[in-house]
Amino acid sequence: MTIASAPDQALVLAAIEQVWGSMLFATADPWPTERPAEFETGLQAQIELRGEWNGRLVLTCDAGVANQIANAMLGLGPEDELDEPDVHDAVGEVLNVVGGSVKGALPGTSALGLPGVSEVTEVPSRDESFVVSWGDAPVYVQIVPDAA
Amino acid sequence: MRALVVDDSRAMRRIVGRILGDAGFEVLEAADGQEALDLLAGPGDVPELACVDWNMPVMDGLTFITEVRRHPEWRAITLMMVTTESESDQIVRALAAGAHEYLIKPFTGEAMLEKLDLLGLLPTSTGV
Amino acid sequence: MTISPQAFTFVRELVRAESAIVLEPGKEYLVESRLVPLAREAGHPDVDAYVADLSTRRSQAALMKVVEALTTNETSWFRDSDPYTTLRKEVLPLLAKTRPNRELRVWAAACSSGQEPYSIVMTALDTPELAGWKTDVIATDLSEEMLERGRRGEYSQLEVNRGMPATTLVRHFERSGLNWRINQSIKDRVQFRQLNLTRPFPPMGKFDVVFLRNVLIYFDLPTKQDILRRVRQVMAPDGHLFLGAAEMTMGVDDAWERVPAGRSSVYRIREEQRTCVPW
After folding, report:
1. What is the CATH number of domain C5-71?
2. Using CA atoms, how far apart are residues A127 and B83, in angstroms rounded to an integer?
3. For the whole prediction, is pTM greater than 0.80?
4. Measured between alpha carbons, how far is C155 from C158 in angstroms, rounded to an integer?
5. Chains with at least 3 CB pairs less than 8 angstroms from chain A
6. Would residue A4 count as lying in a domain?
7. Could you tell me if residue A43 is inside a domain?
8. Is C263 annotated as catalytic?
9. CATH code for the part of the protein at C82-274
10. Count of domains for chain B
11. What ipTM goes with this model?
């Protein structure tokens, strides 16, 4: 693996695969470009990186998917109902671990912020993100550099 | 044996707590370094082990570890960083501040048990 | 969803019967994390339901899948830790007294993706009696794919978490993207070669230490006997053999004697057998 000076899609995808596999017991695959990836209301987690590269990673998924991710992380059944704070916390922590892996792969030592999670009603633009699978559902990932 | 899990993520506290619980520890939890220091200063036995996240609000894990090492009455606590911070420099900083071991997230339960074994903290281990 | 004591006991008995590997209490998390993917694949909501179904259906194929999930892929650094402590504190210092040329040769006979031979080199570097010595490790495996991984010497975050002290990681590895790469000076001490243990060994010279860990369990008795006999032929007379925790030479090849060391044991060729080994 070569050392990139900014996080690219391959690096973030590799970090997500590792986290899905080890913390969630699931596989993450790239979502086919031609396949629709719509949902109504979702959860968005963000985390900041500060160092040679400055920006944030953003993860957006359907509310039901967020619940499933939280359940998988806690070793519960996929349909178990969790409190909203628990779901937010789990999805935030998943992104935190992805962010830390990505940060460690960048040159120098960068700083990682604390994850923030909020509800969103809009699906991100596919032009500005890449999509990975959670089972049969899409998860949007954005690498957003600070505005110059 | 008692273990203190310090992490701002409830989900992570539950996961680490469960692994430690299965390994025979009585588990205490704190959501940041300051809460953990208050807990240590309170009544009750000093835990044998503390698993500490790095990035937390109020007081981060590195500061917590530095504080713990300043108190002679807490010398017996084995400190293990459990964090997503994964640069060599960060690991060296944590060890220099007094951490005994360092487990990088993501980790599997087996990896955590092997670290506890290295530290001589499993019922079956005698330490290295 | 913590695995129930009944399910854990069932799995433990199954694994012990099939592999001689004992899952101590405290390994519940291991059992569960290894079986969750199998339970999901079989359409069960959790591990308990999966195990309950296994215990009623008793399908041999399904049972073996469980055994496999719990016994393979054990690629930790300093695996079981005890053999490496014994190596550093007892075996290497002893050998250091009797090797005036200050050279040691070690064979890692089922090296998989390289964690074992590299752990041996790092242990030798931590042995004060070997300061300034040349320790070379020949690492062999049946799988070319595994050997290639070993030669590359690059390991994922998850892999370096397994059994490696943090001080060792920062001392001997550097980051390479998401992975960690072992230092060249360690890599240079290990030579990876393909080898099938069940066939006659190629010329390899004599070894002072042989690691033949967790591989004999996969062979039947005559094959075990044959392998242990041929290992004797490539050992220095005062060499030391390390086996897996669930393995022993007793009743297999009695030309070896067991020497208790730490919590485990090492094996040496019996004194009376050392002179009559057919070279």
Report:
1. 1.10.155.10
2. 33
3. yes
4. 8
5. B, C
6. no
7. yes
8. no
9. 3.40.50.150
10. 1
11. 0.92
